[in-house]
Every structure is written in C-alpha cells, then in structure tokens.
Amino acid sequence: MSDLSNYRKSYEKSELLETNIPEDPMNLFHRWFYEAEDLGGIEEVNAMTVSTIGLDGFPKARVVLLKKFNEEGFIFYTNYNSEKGKALARNPNVCLSFFWHSMERQVIIKGIAEKTPELTSDNYFDSRPDGSKLGAIVSPQSDVIPSRDFLENNLKQLEQDYQNKEIKRPENWGGYLVKPISVEFWQGRPNRLHDRIRYQLQEDYSWKIERLSP
C-alpha cells in the first residue's frame, strides 16, 4: 500500500476576495485563464476535465481541450457517437473543471450542454489540420476495436481516398456549448483555509455570489 499522507503543500501565491471580483463569472474566468497562460507556465492551459453521467448511471470524467469561451459559455468538440456524446444526449447536465496547479487555482463549472450550430462545427473542423480531420473520420470513438493496426490501416486508406479532395466534417462530429449555471473559483491559501467563491445563476439571469467554507 502506498501511504500519501505526507504529501502536503502550502498554498501562498494569491487570494480571492469579494472586493476584487466582477459581477459576472465569465469575466473572472477570462482573467484567470489568461493569467494562467501568461504567468503560470502551463503547457495546455485549456485542458479541462469533462464529467458526465453515463448510460450505466456512473459518472465519468475525461480531459478534453476547451476550444472557445464567451459570454454564452464553454465550447469543446467531440464525436457525438462517443461515450460522452451518448451520455450528453440522454443527460445534458455536465461538469467542467480546470486545475492550474502552478497558479494554485481551480475552477468548477456546472452547466447544460447543447450542440453548437452546424456552421460553428463546420468552421472549426475546417480550421483543423488534414490529419486531425481524417482522425475524426476514421475513429469510431469509444467503440471496441481489434487492434492499433485497424486504425492505422483505415487511416492509410482514407488518406488515399481523400488525396486532393476536400475533407468535410462528418455529421456525427461537432461541438458542444456548455451554458454555466454555477461557477466556483478556488484559490489555494495557507493552512488549508482556501478561498472558494461560487457564482450561481438566478431566474433573472443575474449571478448570486457566495463564499463557501473550505
């Protein structure tokens, strides 16, 4: 058995106070995101954990890349026939989380996922390298496959089929927009007295701001 009880760190880099936060959580997310990008030395600041409730009733989390965020919410792309796509089709309630360890910060977002418009998915797909486009087509994401060679051989065939041809987005691949209903910001502090500020969306679309005990 591995005993990790002595793994400890003192969090002392910053603070999160009600006197220095905006009324809208997307503004604070924007600030934290670019501070992590500019100051945090993080290789993929847009890496986030997406948690869904699977068809088997169990939650499942996986890391994907955030591709856009704005006043509406957070956008990522996937295969709609994948395990996460099927889960979201049945239950669109989703949780996103970011952990920027070098900044001693995390953000936890509860929201409702909906497919992005086809034009949005088309535009993003068109911006991808050809290899990524073909990878999206060749992979029956989350399905059981016989071997690695199965993918490699199918990719080689697709490369021949699409040589000098336009690669169009498959209908089963596209984006999700997660519209937040709750956004919690966590800032590490000394003695485990961390700052936790939660924004909750109200019926009038304003945000209620509350401090949570660590």
Labels describing this entry:
single chain; 214 residues; alpha+beta; Pnp Oxidase, Chain A; 5 helices; 9 strands; globular
Describe this structure in words.
The protein has 214 residues and is of the alpha+beta class. It has a domain at 25-125 and 172-211: Electron Transport, Fmn-binding Protein, Chain A (Pnp Oxidase, Chain A, Roll), CATH 2.30.110.10. Helices cover 26% and strands 32% of the residues. It has five helices and nine strands. Strands 1, 2, 3, 4, 5, 6, 7, 8 and 9 form a nine-stranded antiparallel beta sheet that branches. Strand 3 (68-69) and strand 4 (74-79) form a beta hairpin. It is globular. It starts with 24 loop residues before the first helix and ends with a strand. The mean pLDDT is 94.
